[in-house]
Design a protein that fits this description.
seven-stranded antiparallel β-sheet, 11 helices, four-stranded antiparallel β-sheet
Amino acid sequence: MASPDLTQELTCPICLEIFTHPVFLECGHHFCSSCISQSWQKVPGDVSCPQCRQVFTQRNVRPARTLINIVEKFREVKVTQPQEEFYCQEHEEKLKLFCEDEHKAICVVCGMSRAHKTHSVIPIKEAAQIYKNKLETSLETLQKQMDLSLHRKREREDGISHMKAEVDRLRNEINSEFEKMHKFLFEKEELMKAKLERKSNKVFEDMENNLTKTMDEMSSLEAAIRDLKSRLEVQLAPEFLKDIQDLLMRSQMEFHKPGTVSTQLPVDIAGEPFKYIKVWREMRAVISPVPASLTLDLETASDGLIISQDLTIVRFGNEEPDRPDHPKRFDVYLNVLSSQSFTSGRHYWEVGLGDKTDWIVGVCRESVNRKGDITQSPENGFWVIAWTEDCKSLKILDVISQLEMKPRKLGIYLDYEGGQVSFYDSEDMSHLYTFTDTFTEKLYPIFNPCNNDSDPLTLLSG
C-alpha cells in the first residue's frame, strides 16, 4: 500500500494532483505535461522552472517514463486502498461539515446542535474547495510580488555594478590627469581620490541598504510562499483547513518597494571640468593650462551689436551701421557666434558678465535657423542659459535667477563625445547647469548681450 510520503512525491507542484503524463525539465523537477505547458504559454522568451526558478533558453521537456509507470501502479493501488476518515471527538461521527463562523470541521450532529444553529455551515468538501481557491489566488498574488522583488533586486545589483564601473572610470581618469602634473600635483591627486572614495562609499552604503531591505522583503515572501505551497499539498480536508484563517492572513502580505536612492555621484566629483579647473587655479604659478581664446565672427553678428576691434567684446548699441545681409547673420535676435567651432574633444571658455542685467550664452549647431523668430531650445539646436525677463517667452533655461548672487564670470564646458554642455560660475567653479544631448554636427559658442542695457559681454582669454 502506498504511504503518504509516496503520495507527496507523486504530486505535481503546479496542480497539486497526482501526476498526469509527467515530464521532467533540465533541472530535474517533474510536472504534468499540460501544467508546465500552460505555465509557459504566456511567457515570451526565456522561461524558468516554477519550482527552483532556474532559467532556460530552450523549452525542453522530456517524458518521465519511469515516473509514468510508478504513477500508474500507484493509481491502481489507491483505488483499492480505504480512505482515511476523520471523526468528531464528541459524537464519534464523521466530519462532513464545516462551520464558516468558527472555521473548523464539524460532524452532522454538531451542525444540528445549539452551538452551531445560527452559524453558516457548508459541506466540508465544498469548504475545502473554497479555501483551496482562496489560497491559490493568494499564492498567485504572492508569486507576482516575488517576481517584482526579484526585479527590484536585479535593478539594485545592476545599479551597484554601474556605480562601481563609474567610480573605476573616474579613478582611472584622475590617475591619468595627475600623471601629467607629476610631483607638484601628487598631494592634490591623493586628496581628490579620498574625496571620491568618501562620496562613493556613502552612495554605496545607501544602495546596499536599499538592496538589504529588498532582500528582507523577499525572505518574508519566500516564507509565506513556502507555507502556502506546503498547505496546498495536503490532501485531507480537515488537516488542510487547520488554522486556515491565520494562513489566509499571512497570504495577504505584499512586497513593500523600498524607496529609491540616488545612483549618481555628486556633480563636484563626477562633473567636468570642475575637478581640474579648480586645481589649475591653485597651481597657476607652476603650469599654465588656460581656457580657450575665442573671437567673435562679424559675419554672424546681428544689426544693433557693437563689436570691439579685437573681436572679444560685444554690446548693444544704436550707433552701429547696418551690416549687409549674409546667410550666416542673425537678423532678428541679437546673436553673434564665435569664429571658432568644435566637432570633437573637450573645450572650456569663459565670458565676462560684469553687472549686466540681461544676457544669453551657450552653444548652438551650425545649421540653426538664423532668420526671423527663433525658439532657442535644445530641440532646435540651442543649448543656452540666460539672465533675462524674456526667458519664458523665448523658452530659454533660466537658472541664474535662483541664485543668491549673480555670477560675474561664466564658464562654459563642452564635451562633444560625452554629449554635455555645462555652465559654471567661473569665480568659484560652482556648477550651475548641465545639458545632456547627442551632438552630430559642428557646434559654435553663441553670445547675446540683449538690448536692455549697454554693458558688454567679454570673451576672456587664457
